[in-house]
Amino acid sequence: MTPIHEITAATGAGCASTLIGHPLDTIKVHLQTNPSLRGTIHATRALVRSSSPDVVIGSLFRGIGPPLAAAVAMNTVMFSAFRAVKVSLPDDHGIAGSFLAGTVSGVATACVSTPTDYVKIQSQLTGR
Fold first, then answer.
1. Burial, 120: exposed, middle or buried (Cβ in 10 Å; 0-12, 13-18, 19+)?
2. Is residue 2 packed enough to be buried (19+ CB in 10 Å), middle (13-18) or exposed (0-12)?
3. Three-state SS across the chain?
4. Statement: the pTM of the whole predicted model exceeds 0.70
5. pLDDT tens digit string along 31-87?
6. What is the rounded CA–CA span in Å between residue 38 and residue 96?
7. Do 71 and 14 meet the contact criterion of CB atoms below 8 Å apart?
């Protein structure tokens, strides 16, 4: 598989998982920041009720822009870094080489994900 195919597939998977998981993440953030919410169902109802009738689903997807952009950036960085490290190592490094490549790609991805997660949480809480 070529690097562009790997990055494209990983980016698609990252976007799909973001679209599926973001509503649950939004509910989690509201539960963590609002002690008056009594549970997941209560938080979901409160979140839906707080939105206007024409954007009920939108309240669950509030702040999804930054995570979608982050999914593209993080997957590009992760797969590019992993491949670059693996290619630079001799073939006989086996598991240790994969561990090193995974560690480097994880650190590189964290440099992208940490600031974007902060922006995402602020968007989920404020709706902007």
1. buried
2. exposed
3. CCHHHHHHHHHHHHHHHHHHHHHHHHHHHHHHHCCCCCCHHHHHHHHHHCCCHHHHHHHHCCCCHHHHHHHHHHHHHHHHHHHHHHHHCCHHHHHHHHHHHHHHHHHHHHHHHHHHHHHHHHHHHHCC
4. no
5. 988 889 889 999 888 888 877 666 667 788 887 887 888 888 888 888 889 989 988
6. 46
7. yes
